[in-house]
Amino acid sequence: MNSNYKLDPHPDAESLNAFVEQALTEQERGPILAHLAECGRCRQVVYLAHQAAEMEAEPELAVAAAAPRSAAWKESWFRSWRLAWVTAGALAVTMTAAYVVHVRRVEIAAGQARDAREAATRNTDMALTPQTPRLGTQVAPPPAVAPALSVTNTLKQQTPTMAPKQLTLTAMPEPAGEAGAMSSSRIDEVAPPPGASGTGYSAMSAGTKYELKPVVAERQQEEEERAAAALEAGKLATEKRSLASANEPAKRAAPNGGMLAPATSSAQIDADPVHAGSFDAGVRHGENLAFAVSRVKPAELPSGLPAVSTVKARGSSLAVDRTGAVFLSGDLGNHWESVAKQWSGRAVAIRVEPAVGTNESAQRSPAVVFEIVNDQGQVWVSADGRIWKAKQI
Amino acid sequence: MGITPVQSVDGAAGEGVPGQRGAFDGPLDEILLDELWRQCEGTSWGLERGEFSRILFDIGAAHNYGLDEGATASRLQQAAYFRGLRLGDLVLARACAAGNERAWEHFVAIYREPLVRAAIAITGSDTLGRELADQLYAELFGLTTRDGERRCPLKSYRGRGSLMGWLRTTLAQRHVDHHRRSHREQPLEELDAPAPAFEAEKTASELTVLEKAVDGALKSCEAEDRLLLAAYYLDGRTLLQIAGVLHVHEATVSRKLKRACEEIHKRVVKNLQSTGMSRRAADEALGTDPRDLDLNLKKLLQYSQSDAFQEKAGR
Fold this sequence. Notes:
The structure holds two protein chains of two kinds. Chain A is α+β, with helices and mostly antiparallel strands. Chain A has eight helices and 14 strands. Chain B folds into three domains: 76 residues, no CATH class; 66 residues, no CATH class; 101 residues, Arc Repressor Mutant, subunit A (Orthogonal Bundle). A two-stranded antiparallel sheet of chain B has the order 1-2.
């Protein structure tokens, strides 16, 4: 305090200012604090002085804040992106977890389907009646839905760079990380056709993955031997199908890889020894996508038995259980209704085929027919899945 | 008082300065004085080293180097005290008070505009602010005289805190004093809400006991608590304003206020119980309508207004 304080009951301006600016020692601060507690005038002085100091400091703070703004901005985008990275990382982890869960579910479902199919195949083998093929002819497999394991095609039209090599779709063990990439065109469960239990065929499972790779000579030889053995065993249906047109650019794709291959005419297939023992893959992609056999919801049939063959086309799904009962669903397998038996023997497989037609309208939007194969290799066809009649070969 | 070279400050650490309190009975450390002299740039305003030494001595003696009355400052404490002064501002203020032209030019260039802005901020009016600033500026320039001697308030500045802060506080003092003088006809007490017609629901003796209990509780509060209570409840300041003055966080102010209120409550109950009242009766007495009490909290909180400084004046 200055010497004036002896006459003035209030601390002088310097003491009050030093109190506000914290320039006082503890010993000096105590009396000022005590006086401020009691003196409204000095409190008011202090508040006003402090308020003026704050208002004075605001423009300076604004200038000081504006100066490093550019530098701060440069950092800020990175900081904000760091948050984005964290979010993206969390999202990636979540998606990975969901993916792994999905893969496991698919594997479990595939294992169950494989078990059911093997059981059905064993039953089918017991009931099959060998059908004598015509000797000297190569049997072309039905080009429709069938559990073909290898499709050999020349990819000259589609992949010129690969033309010199003959490529084949061979069954590969499905890596766990790719199961989630199954397209909707993948056939889930397709029962083996009559005779599929022969050496020339192996069961196709839902968990099977196909890979396009060059055919080696050994593989070709093996396929030929398999086909010959199947023919001799009479387990193949000798039906031949002529596709709508040899020039029709219907393409065949791998069952679940979604890879497209140029359509192969029946003549080509006949001439190709590899094709002799193979069924076509189950998915067809035409230019106008006339139909597709797609993955449907795992059938929970009214019979309580697992479906050994399922097919879907044009919004209708058909399924056959291992007793040969056929069921029809119009809502992607959510509800099934039994189809009256109009065929002989026991239905073992069901498939979908394009309706034979040559007019342009049919080609633009070709109709499809469902086909049932019984345990004797005979075929019945239906346009709607309800009314069936024997197929005229 | 002359200044002669002596041993260094560090070498004298912890040594007290014997003799009369606050005086330079021993010479100011020459090394320290050199350091302070270089720091203050007094030569810019025509100040001499001897004059600077005398100013420092006067300031140190007046405040006893920031120590309690009767304490003896060691050389280290003296050095710390001097180093805490705003020597640049101090020298400028003293040069202005002495009428140095260059110092005034510098003062005007540096402080004129901030002085006006501060005055406007304090008064809340551009006109009043400029008027207040001009008035102070004229006073600083030494236009007022007393007993034929030119008086300059800058002489009272002693480097404790910034010169700009001193100017702001001086402006605020001028403004508050002017306001209080001009509103003397309307005492603040009359602004208090008038008490309603007293209906004696409680006996006079009970109310008297309660008044005494509250009075005693408030008087026993610590200075800081009373300051907080007065600033918050009497002055109507916000927590932020109080926190700004005390340099603490407003949450701290809030916490201290709450604690002070709880402490007062406890003390009131304790005071009531000390009169023979049961705890339950004391709690019930606290539920008395405050308007029934003849208490002036402003007077209670400020019961000893200026006592501290009057005590000092009597020393």
